[in-house]
Amino acid sequence: MAKPLEAELVVAPDLEALSRLAARRATEVVAGVAAAGGRCTIALSGGTTPRRLYELLASDHRLGAPWQQAEWFWGDERCVPPDHPDSNYRMAFEVLLGPLRVPSDMVHRIACGGAPDDAESSAAAYEAVLRDRLTGGRFDLVFLGVGADGHTASLFPGAPSLEEREHWALAVTGGPGLAVRRRITLTYPVLNRSRTVFMLAAGGGKHPVIQRMLDGGRTDPAARVRPEGDLVWFLDDAARYGAAGGRPATA
Ligand code: 6PG
Fold first, then answer.
1. Which domains, ranges and CATH numbers included, belong to the chain?
2. Backbone phi, then psi, for 97, in 5-degree steps?
3. Ligand 1: which of 15, 74, 152, 173 to mutate, judged by most atoms within 8 Å of the beta carbon?
4. In angstroms, what is the span from residue 246 Cα to ligand 1's centroid?
Protein backbone atom coordinates (compact mmCIF):
# COMPACT_ATOMS: atom_id res chain seq x y z
CA MET A 1 0.00 0.00 0.00
CA ALA A 2 1.42 3.35 -1.02
CA LYS A 3 1.92 5.65 1.92
CA PRO A 4 0.77 9.27 1.56
CA LEU A 5 3.95 11.28 1.08
CA GLU A 6 6.26 8.70 2.65
CA ALA A 7 4.48 9.31 5.95
CA GLU A 8 3.77 7.04 8.85
CA LEU A 9 0.16 5.86 8.70
CA VAL A 10 -1.70 5.14 11.95
CA VAL A 11 -5.20 3.73 11.41
CA ALA A 12 -7.57 3.31 14.34
CA PRO A 13 -11.11 1.89 14.44
CA ASP A 14 -12.78 5.20 15.36
CA LEU A 15 -12.18 8.80 16.42
CA GLU A 16 -11.82 7.88 20.09
CA ALA A 17 -9.09 5.34 19.36
CA LEU A 18 -7.41 7.72 16.90
CA SER A 19 -7.44 10.47 19.52
CA ARG A 20 -5.92 8.20 22.16
CA LEU A 21 -3.07 7.13 19.88
CA ALA A 22 -2.36 10.70 18.79
CA ALA A 23 -2.49 11.98 22.37
CA ARG A 24 0.03 9.39 23.48
CA ARG A 25 2.40 10.17 20.61
CA ALA A 26 2.06 13.93 21.12
CA THR A 27 2.91 13.55 24.80
CA GLU A 28 6.01 11.54 23.87
CA VAL A 29 7.12 14.24 21.41
CA VAL A 30 6.68 17.11 23.86
CA ALA A 31 8.25 15.22 26.76
CA GLY A 32 11.18 14.36 24.51
CA VAL A 33 11.81 17.96 23.50
CA ALA A 34 11.68 19.03 27.13
CA ALA A 35 14.00 16.22 28.22
CA ALA A 36 16.50 17.43 25.62
CA GLY A 37 16.35 20.91 27.14
CA GLY A 38 14.30 22.47 24.35
CA ARG A 39 11.50 25.01 24.58
CA CYS A 40 8.73 23.13 22.80
CA THR A 41 6.63 25.00 20.24
CA ILE A 42 3.26 23.54 19.30
CA ALA A 43 0.78 24.66 16.61
CA LEU A 44 -2.82 23.60 17.16
CA SER A 45 -5.40 22.80 14.52
CA GLY A 46 -8.94 24.08 14.50
CA GLY A 47 -11.98 22.14 13.42
CA THR A 48 -13.78 19.36 15.26
CA THR A 49 -11.47 16.37 14.79
CA PRO A 50 -8.76 17.34 17.31
CA ARG A 51 -11.16 18.24 20.15
CA ARG A 52 -11.10 14.79 21.77
CA LEU A 53 -7.33 14.63 21.39
CA TYR A 54 -7.02 17.96 23.19
CA GLU A 55 -9.33 16.75 25.96
CA LEU A 56 -7.12 13.69 26.46
CA LEU A 57 -3.95 15.78 26.62
CA ALA A 58 -5.55 17.86 29.37
CA SER A 59 -6.76 14.83 31.31
CA ASP A 60 -5.10 11.43 30.79
CA HIS A 61 -1.79 13.04 29.76
CA ARG A 62 -1.79 16.18 31.89
CA LEU A 63 1.26 14.94 33.84
CA GLY A 64 2.94 13.31 30.84
CA ALA A 65 4.77 16.39 29.62
CA PRO A 66 5.59 19.93 30.86
CA TRP A 67 2.74 21.49 28.88
CA GLN A 68 2.94 24.76 30.79
CA GLN A 69 6.52 25.28 29.56
CA ALA A 70 5.59 24.84 25.91
CA GLU A 71 4.67 27.75 23.64
CA TRP A 72 1.33 27.39 21.90
CA PHE A 73 0.31 28.64 18.48
CA TRP A 74 -2.37 27.93 15.86
CA GLY A 75 -2.10 26.65 12.30
CA ASP A 76 -4.91 28.98 11.36
CA GLU A 77 -7.61 31.15 12.84
CA ARG A 78 -10.90 32.53 11.71
CA CYS A 79 -11.10 36.35 11.90
CA VAL A 80 -13.57 36.47 14.75
CA PRO A 81 -13.32 37.61 18.38
CA PRO A 82 -11.70 35.08 20.79
CA ASP A 83 -15.03 34.30 22.45
CA HIS A 84 -16.80 33.61 19.14
CA PRO A 85 -18.17 30.06 18.71
CA ASP A 86 -16.10 29.66 15.52
CA SER A 87 -12.82 30.75 17.13
CA ASN A 88 -10.12 28.08 17.05
CA TYR A 89 -8.54 29.78 20.03
CA ARG A 90 -11.77 29.49 22.03
CA MET A 91 -12.09 25.75 21.46
CA ALA A 92 -8.46 25.06 22.36
CA PHE A 93 -8.59 27.27 25.44
CA GLU A 94 -11.80 25.65 26.70
CA VAL A 95 -10.69 22.02 26.38
CA LEU A 96 -6.90 22.19 26.58
CA LEU A 97 -5.01 25.36 27.52
CA GLY A 98 -7.38 26.48 30.26
CA PRO A 99 -7.61 23.08 31.94
CA LEU A 100 -3.80 22.70 31.73
CA ARG A 101 -3.39 26.21 33.19
CA VAL A 102 -0.93 27.20 30.47
CA PRO A 103 0.39 30.67 31.36
CA SER A 104 -1.04 33.35 29.09
CA ASP A 105 2.40 34.53 27.97
CA MET A 106 2.96 31.06 26.48
CA VAL A 107 -0.21 31.28 24.36
CA HIS A 108 0.17 33.13 21.06
CA ARG A 109 -3.39 33.73 19.88
CA ILE A 110 -3.82 35.00 16.34
CA ALA A 111 -5.57 38.27 17.06
CA CYS A 112 -7.87 38.84 14.09
CA GLY A 113 -11.06 40.29 15.37
CA GLY A 114 -13.04 40.37 12.21
CA ALA A 115 -12.76 44.08 11.50
CA PRO A 116 -12.58 44.41 7.73
CA ASP A 117 -9.11 45.89 7.65
CA ASP A 118 -7.25 43.94 10.30
CA ALA A 119 -6.55 40.57 8.65
CA GLU A 120 -3.45 41.72 6.78
CA SER A 121 -1.96 43.41 9.82
CA SER A 122 -2.90 40.41 11.98
CA ALA A 123 -1.01 38.08 9.65
CA ALA A 124 2.05 40.33 9.72
CA ALA A 125 1.96 40.56 13.51
CA TYR A 126 1.59 36.79 13.85
CA GLU A 127 4.49 36.17 11.48
CA ALA A 128 6.67 38.49 13.58
CA VAL A 129 5.86 36.42 16.68
CA LEU A 130 6.65 33.20 14.81
CA ARG A 131 10.02 34.52 13.66
CA ASP A 132 10.79 35.61 17.18
CA ARG A 133 9.66 32.49 19.05
CA LEU A 134 10.35 29.49 16.81
CA THR A 135 13.74 28.00 17.53
CA GLY A 136 15.48 27.68 14.19
CA GLY A 137 12.28 28.76 12.52
CA ARG A 138 10.72 25.37 13.17
CA PHE A 139 7.72 24.10 15.11
CA ASP A 140 8.43 21.08 17.26
CA LEU A 141 4.91 19.73 16.78
CA VAL A 142 2.09 20.77 14.45
CA PHE A 143 -1.44 19.36 14.50
CA LEU A 144 -3.35 19.70 11.23
CA GLY A 145 -6.76 18.59 10.05
CA VAL A 146 -7.94 17.84 6.53
CA GLY A 147 -11.08 19.14 4.90
CA ALA A 148 -13.21 17.01 2.58
CA ASP A 149 -12.01 19.29 -0.23
CA GLY A 150 -8.39 18.54 0.67
CA HIS A 151 -7.63 21.80 2.48
CA THR A 152 -5.50 21.97 5.59
CA ALA A 153 -5.21 24.87 8.02
CA SER A 154 -6.75 27.55 5.82
CA LEU A 155 -4.81 26.55 2.72
CA PHE A 156 -7.65 25.98 0.27
CA PRO A 157 -7.56 24.33 -3.18
CA GLY A 158 -6.50 26.71 -5.92
CA ALA A 159 -5.70 29.55 -3.53
CA PRO A 160 -2.76 31.88 -4.17
CA SER A 161 -1.57 31.11 -0.60
CA LEU A 162 -0.51 27.66 -1.84
CA GLU A 163 2.24 29.28 -3.88
CA GLU A 164 3.61 31.50 -1.09
CA ARG A 165 7.34 31.02 -0.70
CA GLU A 166 8.37 33.76 1.73
CA HIS A 167 5.73 34.62 4.30
CA TRP A 168 5.01 32.22 7.17
CA ALA A 169 1.49 33.56 7.74
CA LEU A 170 -1.05 35.07 5.36
CA ALA A 171 -4.51 36.61 5.47
CA VAL A 172 -6.78 34.60 3.18
CA THR A 173 -10.41 34.51 2.13
CA GLY A 174 -12.03 31.09 1.98
CA GLY A 175 -14.84 30.01 -0.27
CA PRO A 176 -18.49 31.14 -0.03
CA GLY A 177 -19.49 27.93 1.75
CA LEU A 178 -17.50 28.81 4.87
CA ALA A 179 -19.22 30.32 7.90
CA VAL A 180 -16.17 32.55 8.39
CA ARG A 181 -14.35 33.33 5.15
CA ARG A 182 -11.64 35.73 6.38
CA ARG A 183 -8.84 33.80 8.03
CA ILE A 184 -5.15 33.80 8.91
CA THR A 185 -3.17 30.70 7.95
CA LEU A 186 0.32 29.30 8.24
CA THR A 187 1.96 28.62 4.88
CA TYR A 188 4.11 25.79 3.53
CA PRO A 189 7.43 27.62 4.11
CA VAL A 190 7.00 27.30 7.88
CA LEU A 191 4.84 24.16 7.97
CA ASN A 192 7.35 22.18 5.94
CA ARG A 193 10.24 23.10 8.25
CA SER A 194 8.48 21.42 11.20
CA ARG A 195 10.14 18.68 13.23
CA THR A 196 6.90 16.70 13.60
CA VAL A 197 3.49 17.06 11.91
CA PHE A 198 0.40 15.07 12.92
CA MET A 199 -2.36 15.07 10.27
CA LEU A 200 -5.73 14.00 11.66
CA ALA A 201 -8.65 12.78 9.56
CA ALA A 202 -11.77 10.94 10.67
CA GLY A 203 -15.04 10.04 8.99
CA GLY A 204 -16.04 8.75 5.59
CA GLY A 205 -16.25 12.28 4.20
CA LYS A 206 -12.48 12.45 4.30
CA HIS A 207 -11.93 9.11 2.52
CA PRO A 208 -11.83 10.49 -1.05
CA VAL A 209 -9.04 12.95 -0.25
CA ILE A 210 -7.16 10.33 1.78
CA GLN A 211 -7.49 7.82 -1.06
CA ARG A 212 -6.20 10.39 -3.57
CA MET A 213 -3.10 10.80 -1.44
CA LEU A 214 -2.70 7.06 -0.89
CA ASP A 215 -2.79 6.74 -4.69
CA GLY A 216 0.11 9.19 -4.90
CA GLY A 217 -1.85 12.40 -5.50
CA ARG A 218 0.01 15.57 -4.62
CA THR A 219 -2.46 18.26 -5.67
CA ASP A 220 -4.56 18.51 -2.53
CA PRO A 221 -3.28 21.23 -0.17
CA ALA A 222 -3.01 18.64 2.61
CA ALA A 223 -0.83 16.49 0.34
CA ARG A 224 1.66 19.33 0.02
CA VAL A 225 2.48 19.25 3.73
CA ARG A 226 5.85 17.53 3.53
CA PRO A 227 7.81 18.45 6.65
CA GLU A 228 11.59 18.08 6.91
CA GLY A 229 10.85 16.10 10.07
CA ASP A 230 8.32 13.38 10.81
CA LEU A 231 4.88 13.25 9.19
CA VAL A 232 2.30 11.01 10.86
CA TRP A 233 -1.22 10.56 9.53
CA PHE A 234 -3.80 9.51 12.14
CA LEU A 235 -6.89 8.10 10.40
CA ASP A 236 -9.95 6.25 11.54
CA ASP A 237 -11.26 3.29 9.53
CA ALA A 238 -13.91 5.41 7.80
CA ALA A 239 -11.38 7.94 6.54
CA ARG A 240 -8.96 5.20 5.47
CA TYR A 241 -11.39 2.66 3.99
CA GLY A 242 -14.62 4.61 3.40
CA ALA A 243 -17.82 5.01 5.39
CA ALA A 244 -18.73 1.40 4.69
CA GLY A 245 -15.65 0.46 6.73
CA GLY A 246 -14.07 -2.45 4.95
CA ARG A 247 -10.85 -2.74 6.93
CA PRO A 248 -9.24 -5.79 5.27
CA ALA A 249 -8.79 -8.73 7.59
CA THR A 250 -5.06 -8.59 6.94
CA ALA A 251 -4.69 -4.87 7.82
C1 6PG B 1 -10.17 25.20 10.62
C2 6PG B 1 -9.14 24.11 10.53
C3 6PG B 1 -9.39 23.32 9.28
C4 6PG B 1 -9.87 21.96 9.77
C5 6PG B 1 -10.46 21.15 8.64
C6 6PG B 1 -11.07 19.85 9.17
O7 6PG B 1 -9.87 26.29 11.11
O8 6PG B 1 -11.31 24.90 10.23
O9 6PG B 1 -7.90 24.52 10.67
O10 6PG B 1 -8.26 23.17 8.46
O11 6PG B 1 -8.77 21.25 10.34
O12 6PG B 1 -11.47 21.94 8.04
O13 6PG B 1 -12.11 20.20 10.05
P14 6PG B 1 -12.88 19.06 10.88
O15 6PG B 1 -11.88 18.51 11.85
O16 6PG B 1 -14.00 19.81 11.57
O17 6PG B 1 -13.36 18.04 9.88
1. 8-241 (3.40.50.1360)
2. -70, -35
3. 152
4. 25
